[in-house]
Amino acid sequence: MPSIIAWTISSSIVLIAFSVWGLLMFYAYRSTLETDARRRFAVASTASLLGWLVLAFVLGSAGVFQATPSRVFPALGLGIALLILAGAWLLYRSSALNAVIAAIPLPWLVGVQLYRVVGFSFLVLYAVGRLPGEFAIPAGAGDVVVGLAAPVVGYLFYKGYRWSCLAVLSWNIAGILDMVVAVATGFLTSPGPFQALALETPNELITAFPLVLVPLYAVPLSILLHLAALKSLKAVWEVASNKGLKCGGQPLREASHPAVP
Q: How many distinct structural domains can be found in the chain?
């Protein structure tokens, strides 16, 4: 892999982790949490997000998730599933996390995923013959489109344009589907019992360091951010319904809490 691509991926994952962590920390201190609860949340979220980052670097660089033809079950698939399930459980059971998410303006929950443009690196690696097109094209192009659309959709909601809620809903669905396609094509093109595509040029890089950081960290985090945004959107939609408003337009913006400071 070209060194510039490897550096870009590694540094992007670190930037993503600290961006999301910073967003949580900032709004934790603007939430309804009491002082002690905020401190506990700060410690827990720091340990979770940054600890996860360190673990991803350590295990990824050690080749723990490297796919091989002899592996019966892909370790990366299990890792992704466990991370998403654990995050989803916290998202729906942790009162502290939900209080912080409620304090984060919806445009920020959407716009933060601008980082998805890092998927352009997949297209570059395909262009230089290091990734199979069956994976790189749908995963890379999908990520770039979702990433570029994130701040646009967030801005539409912030301004209260008509159908802005539907735009947020559609963007989240598209973003989740993009992740599903990326994970599916990643498994189907990687060496192992599930490989059905790219038989002549297996997708060996996606489970190798540093590219493995994308499915191991960015993919679960992106899906959890989508779930958080959908939960926030549901709350906004309920506000609109209770006030007899449509989910979109200036009246909704004034009636609901999401607003960029």
A: 1
